[in-house]
Amino acid sequence: NAGVMQNPRHLVRRRGQEARLRCSPMKGHSHVYWYRQLPEEGLKFMVYLQKENIIDESGMPKERFSAEFPKEGPSILRIQQVVRGDSAAYFCASSRGGANYGYTFGSGTRLTVV
Amino acid sequence: GNSVTQMEGPVTLSEEAFLTINCTYTATGYPSLFWYVQYPGEGLQLLLKATKADDKGSNKGFEATYRKETTSFHLEKGSVQVSDSAVYFCALSDRGTKGAQKLVFGQGTRLTINP
After folding, report:
1. What's the rounded mean pLDDT across residues B50-76?
2. B101: which chain A residues are within 8 Å (Cβ-Cβ)?
3. Is residue B69 over pLDDT 70?
4. CB-based contact (8 Å) between A90 and chain B?
5. What is the structure's pLDDT at A39?
6. Checking DSSP bridges between strand A43-50 and strand A53-56, what pairing results, if any?
């Protein structure tokens, strides 16, 4: 019974490249959330998706960042033209419904921009 | 907007000491409150939760009581172990304008237990 699977665990990109982060939710979970954790800080909400729909992207930067959760396959967080300030840990969580159902977090993708 | 403020770390204790990590919140409505734990290199794990005032969440010897009058949800444990060393996050559920029920996190408190 696999949990939330994120890959890659570590990703190194040069400034200006694209980063693609993948998240496969737990079986039976149709709600996916992406959070970003800067060093020594708490997690900040980025985006909430259900299959084929973005429900709330109020925490996403307006430029360079996008997210999708297609009918088939994992959820993808895409960062175009990365900059050093994008270096962070990106966590995906899934749930059957909202936060009160309980989130299950993945182990995260640690992005380093050099 | 809704927010969570945690006791600043790092916190260092000896094994078997009593632990308190303070957490206060600001929220409209009646959020649920959570404590999550993050071990090195891993994602967050739900430690305990409380969904309404005066509820007590408990797990693995940790406890926290939802205090509406003081807007607090302090984490306590009577006798800590080396294996409790981790970063602890207090959080509340925030329905937001689009019903997302996303979580709002505090900044985290790093706990180190020495043998």
Report:
1. 96
2. 97-100
3. yes
4. no
5. 80
6. antiparallel
If you ran DSSP here, which 8-state letter would residue B52 be given?
S
pLDDT in tens, A72-82: 899 999 999 99
Work out the number of other CB atoms within 10 angstroms of the CB of residue A20.
13
For A16, counting Cβ atoms within 10 Å of its Cβ (0-12 exposed, 13-18 middle, 19+ buried), the class is exposed
The predicted-structure confidence for A24-71, as pLDDT tens digits, reads as follows 999 888 899 999 998 877 899 999 999 889 999 999 999 999 999 998
Interchain CB distance below 8 Å, B89 and A99:
no
Strand partners, B72: B24, B67
pLDDT of B62 above 60: yes
CA dist B76 and B63 (Å) reads 5
A103, B103 contact by CB (below 8 A): yes
Determine contact, residues A22/A106, Cβ cutoff 8 Å.
no
The number of C-beta contacts closer than 8 angstroms across A and B is 74
Q: In the structure encoding, which two tokens stand for residue B75, read together?
A: 């984490």
